[in-house]
């Protein structure tokens, strides 16, 4: 699923809320117990098929873009800081939000939730000409920056049928939900990590933080959903309605639902780890930067 560029936009607006270690729940919502491979029982052939699936889906390239964008947003969120602090923040964020490390965590999560039949069906889709083309469009969208005029025009020109298709794709693929949850995972981690260096009057309890997170999620979800839908309209604008409908049918199939739900939970789990580590190291190495936000 193409969600990374909207995630970066969300980070740019939500990181001002400023940060914490994530306790986001990770579920196996895309897999039932039947046919799921037990941990440690993944065969060499299955592991090879999984490697191919993740490669054909463009995951590694998308994670490189996401990791780079997250690092930029950490710096943007700090206001005026010294060059030394800037270098420290970039080093810490770069180390923890390493695309290869996040990729490895996601792959491990897939191995824990492997369903051989659904893996085979998903791989068949991504090997297909249309599957290859859609992956190419998603990767191309990462490299393009669309102006507001283009966004407005794209939404206005889209038919009701076209909008309905991308809404179905977002609903089953979870792009909007995952974008918000990943963003707020980083926010939660930063907030918790910096609590000890804040004045007592500025600190929040865990209950207060979770209440603020819940309000932020409710406030931003529809905004992010709108951004995701427009991003998909732009990314897939060269597809016919029939081709886009075929993609939706795959996403709504058992194999598509398995792939996208495991991907979402795995991405969130991986970001949780990276965000918690980044926040903890920042609080120790550059605690003074929190003063810019009081």
Quick recap:
With 294 residues, this protein is mainly α. The protein has 13 helices and no strands.
Query: Unreliable stretches, pLDDT < 50, 5 or more residues?
Result: 12-36, 146-150
What structural category characterises the helix and strand content? mainly alpha
Subunit arrangement of the protein = single chain
Shape: globular
Work out the helicity level.
over 70%
Overall number of strands: 0
The whole-number mean of residue pLDDT values reads: 80
Individual helix count: 13
Q: How many angstroms does the end-to-end distance come to?
A: 37 Å
Main sheet overview: none
Written description of the protein model:
Helix 2 (44-56) packs parallel to helix 6, helix 9 crosses helix 11 (206-235) and helix 12 packs across helix 13. By secondary structure, the protein is mostly helical. Helices cover 73% and strands 0% of the residues.
């Amino acid at each position: 699923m193409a969600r990374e560029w909207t995630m970066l936009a969300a980070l740019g607006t939500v990181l001002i809320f400023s940060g914490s270690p994530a306790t986001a729940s990770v579920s196996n919502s895309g897999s039932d117990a039947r046919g799921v491979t037990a941990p440690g029982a993944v065969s060499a052939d299955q592991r090879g098929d999984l490697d191919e699936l993740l490669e054909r889906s463009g995951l590694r390239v998308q994670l490189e873009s996401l990791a780079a964008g997250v690092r930029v947003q950490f710096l943007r969120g700090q206001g005026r800081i010294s060059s030394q602090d800037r270098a420290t923040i970039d080093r810490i964020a770069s180390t923890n939000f390493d695309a290869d490390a996040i990729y490895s965590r996601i792959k491990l999560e897939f191995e824990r939730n492997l369903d051989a039949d659904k893996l085979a069906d998903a791989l068949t889709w991504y090997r297909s000409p249309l599957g290859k083309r859609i992956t190419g469009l998603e990767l191309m969208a990462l490299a393009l920056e669309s102006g507001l005029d283009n966004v407005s025009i794209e939404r206005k020109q889209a038919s009701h049928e076209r909008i309905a298709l991308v809404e179905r794709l977002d609903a089953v693929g979870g792009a909007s939900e995952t974008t918000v949850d990943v963003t707020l995972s980083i926010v939660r981690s930063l907030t918790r990590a910096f609590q000890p260096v804040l004045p007592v009057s500025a600190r929040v309890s865990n209950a207060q933080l979770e209440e603020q997170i819940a309000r932020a999620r409710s406030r931003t979800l529809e905004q992010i959903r709108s951004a995701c839908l427009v991003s998909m309209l732009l990314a897939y604008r060269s597809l016919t309605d029939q081709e886009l409908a075929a993609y939706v049918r795959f996403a709504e199939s058992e194999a598509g639902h398995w792939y996208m739900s495991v991907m979402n939970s795995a991405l969130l789990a991986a970001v949780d780890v990276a965000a918690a580590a980044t926040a903890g190291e920042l609080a120790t190495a550059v605690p003074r930067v929190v003063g810019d936000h009081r």
